[in-house]
Amino acid sequence: MTVTHNSKKVGQMNSNDRKNPSLIADWKTLERIFIRPEDEACRKTLVKYMEQILFGLHDFLNSNVGVTQEISLLELTNLYRDTLISPDPEKKLENVISDIIHKIAPRAVNVASPYFVGHMTAAIPFFMVHLKTIVAALNQNVIKLETSKVLSVIEKQVLAKIHRLIYRRDEAFYQTHVQSVDTSLGAFTTGGTTANLMAMWVARNHFLGAGVEQQGMAAAMQAKGVERAVILVSKRGHYSLKKAGGILGLGNSNVLAMDVDQHQRMDMKKLEVTIRNLKKDGKTGIIAVVGIAGATETGTVDPLGEMADLCLGQGIHFHVDAAWGGPVLLSERYAPLLKGIERADSVSMDGHKQFYMPMTSGMVYFRDPGAMDQIAYYSNYVNREGSVDLGIKSLEGSREANALILDSSLKIMGSRGYALMIDHGIETAKAFAAEIEQRVMFEVVTPPELNILTYRMVPPDVCRRLEHADPKGREILNGYLDELNIYIQRTQREAGKSFVSRTRICPVPGSEGGRVVLRSVIMNPMTTNAVLREILDEQERIGQGFCDPIPQIL
Amino acid sequence: MTVTHNSKKVGQMNSNDRKNPSLIADWKTLERIFIRPEDEACRKTLVKYMEQILFGLHDFLNSNVGVTQEISLLELTNLYRDTLISPDPEKKLENVISDIIHKIAPRAVNVASPYFVGHMTAAIPFFMVHLKTIVAALNQNVIKLETSKVLSVIEKQVLAKIHRLIYRRDEAFYQTHVQSVDTSLGAFTTGGTTANLMAMWVARNHFLGAGVEQQGMAAAMQAKGVERAVILVSKRGHYSLKKAGGILGLGNSNVLAMDVDQHQRMDMKKLEVTIRNLKKDGKTGIIAVVGIAGATETGTVDPLGEMADLCLGQGIHFHVDAAWGGPVLLSERYAPLLKGIERADSVSMDGHKQFYMPMTSGMVYFRDPGAMDQIAYYSNYVNREGSVDLGIKSLEGSREANALILDSSLKIMGSRGYALMIDHGIETAKAFAAEIEQRVMFEVVTPPELNILTYRMVPPDVCRRLEHADPKGREILNGYLDELNIYIQRTQREAGKSFVSRTRICPVPGSEGGRVVLRSVIMNPMTTNAVLREILDEQERIGQGFCDPIPQIL
């Protein structure tokens, strides 16, 4: 019954298929990479690698304040066209790490730079890297207790902590549910997209009944007597909600984009009218109304309290997409902005956004601890009925123990540590908006409610002409401004020192088309006002190059 | 415009809400955790933490050969019932790490133990932890080029490498598609579950047309003139396929579990008859037929070539769930077992299974580089039309750059390095089956085709009686054996030295109910025959305790 390991040694290789003839995959090497390092020399080497990673990478990131090395996409893609897997090892770990530090990192994006204010990805606290390393070293799989044990227990506890932050139920409620086998306060997901998808999945099944999961959408809609099932969310809704409509079989055209008011928030009057009209014919089912707590593009927060009133009154599932804004609840000063969230039926949040966790982590919460029963799946070898396996009520299957990162981080920072970052972001964004308003070349398009704002460059001359132009003239002028702001964003991005993003926003409710705007997300505590002024200065220089001279057609 | 950081210092705290009165969240501390370590002392501390993680954890794992510390779930859950987030920091990173090593790790599951052969989660090569640390430190988000740049380019290259491993198209094909903006050879996902879901999503939209994504299942089925849309997979199919049916609005009862033959493989005759019957009335659409390359419970591989013939002939989407078995393609010796996979329309694979990556990583591949157009989603601020953003055709949203781990690992190991592990698993499983057959107390239920097998304890006395029993008697005897094998699996798991899993299998096609079996997955290269003999010895001791005496009723 003995397996001879010698037989595994690879002897039959051609000389021409070896990229690095000195490296051979053999059993001895293999054993070395699986067996824990015993001797001092071996340990030293492993620590040396980790030092390279921690400091080699970080020295690079420090010395490159800008966001990325200048190289065109075409040049870059030309370096990565080989599609054959080498039969033999090509490189040692040491060389792989060194290549990553010297060749790959410089062509990645320095999202940790204080000048990187364009997306919801930024610097994370240093200790997050250590915590992620622990999760990888333990390599638990929280799909089931048998591959995670205490990590599943910790996940349930962390879920209860965040549930309590949202819903503020009493101690007895949490004592009942924190470690309950039968009920679930929420679930970890791999991000806001799957968190929203899970919430809509539960809402769909709640509205149409258990039949939809078993018999499908067509049969369930027929049984319920509806011809259409819709989700209502404002125009500022994240595109993952449209995607959820597509995936779940509702149809993404049935995720209805509601108008917003002049503050980019759900227009409550129009929402009420829409619901009334949809209910009139009795042929349309409303699966959910979604409120946004921190819109991706503008950071705005819908009137959650009013939306809760409306939904509760009508028996409609009320979901809050708090992927961005959820952690604002950790700030005593700004938590009131999210008032009403405690009455939502479900809430989604991202771990890798304002909880400052590394990619990839999200969460979804349900007010009713029985809500997730709608989506339970069992199997014979894991997730048996009656077990506490977290995989039973989960969109994803195998999952790493990310809850340990959030648990540890909450202990290291406390809610007040998080509040410092949240408050800094909001207050710096407000100061940034004031600075933009002061400058003649810019206008704020959507002022920051949380820590996101949009603005655009409007040279004073164009601004004056806009005021006096007829509709046709305004269209031409705005087209010119769109081009200008696209040019600014692209040129600044390519220059590689700073990065803001751009999107297209209708500043006036009901107006056509929308304007290209620059978008800033202030989440890095190292992003100071001085940094933001530098970013504006650079944009002014770029813009002046574009506008000199302003074309005659205008 | 200056924000005074002093104002952020938290002054207003009650003495009774402070768990550790010496720790305060203030701006200075916050800056320290975001700013890169400059001085030598600071760097030494960070390396010290990493050493603690690398060796503290591993010393523990080494000294605990068994799988986990003995503690009841009730005791364990009682330790994790506090659901309030502390306002102030509770612990320093140092203490958090130390707690994880000394209090949490011993109550986690030592999945790296060679004695842990129960699930598809096992030891990973040491360098994987380093690679995951790099991914966390870079914290790129491959949803869009603007937050990942070269990492998106590397992801496309790795996808092409694995696509080529599966489909073996020519060099010209890969030169066209490896870095193409318009086409996609596949996608990274967070696991096999979402990979299968993505494949079924594409297949659904391909069958029903673009209308299903926009108008929903009910409208699309009506337009297509079908009353039911089904997926066909054998009884050995992974439960994620049923879940996909539920999520996608087909209904999980329309994921039809096909009979298997005596080798646990798809019964081709029955599949043909089923398809013929389903097509007869013209009211049922077949979304996909799924072949399994490495069934979760038995490791068996469906007759992929025959299934490809059948599906191609009938114009049915043929998906192969190779979440487990896919990497067998890296072994020259055993790749032929998967013959036919190169004709699949789509293939799913897990990164965190036999690619030995850390949790959480999966992939899905499509033969047709245009197939994923069916599921494209755009938005204004990212994933704009015409961009190369990987988030356009993806179930998930934000994602970490896991492709870098697979890319590096393929370079460090070469396909032959992987082949050593694959071959060891399959050959050790075969030797284990031979050992089981030799022992009078056991019988092999499903012999290993890859590196998974199931078996059960059948004491000789019960075996004899089974041979002569009438149906009623056999039922009683098998019930007794079920209890015996559940007892063995539980007792061994609780004892904490070794771990096999259990499931329920019908060994004879068409027979009722199924038997409880013990299930072994041999993927850890350190799992030797000696280890497996020890596991059997322990099971014999446990089983003898249960069977002494065998009850009179039998």
From TrEMBL, chains A, B:
Which residues, renumbered to this chain, carry the PTM N6-(pyridoxal phosphate)lysine? 353
Q: Name one Pfam family in it.
A: Pyridoxal_deC
The record's top EC class is lyase
| Keywords assigned | Decarboxylase, Lyase, Pyridoxal phosphate
Name the Gene Ontology molecular function terms of this record.
Answer: glutamate decarboxylase activity; pyridoxal phosphate binding
| Gene Ontology BP terms | carboxylic acid metabolic process
In terms of superkingdom, the source organism counts as Bacteria
What EC number(s) would the UniProt record show?
4.1.1.15
Q: Does the keyword Lyase apply?
A: yes
Q: Could you state one GO cellular component term attached to this entry?
A: cytoplasm
Q: Which cofactor does it need?
A: pyridoxal 5'-phosphate
Query: Key word Lyase present in the record?
Result: yes
Annotated transmembrane regions: none
What PANTHER family does the record point to? CYSTEINE SULFINIC ACID DECARBOXYLASE, GLUTAMATE DECARBOXYLASE-RELATED
Q: Which family does it belong to?
A: Belongs to the group II decarboxylase family.
Q: What is this protein called?
A: Pyridoxal-dependent decarboxylase family protein
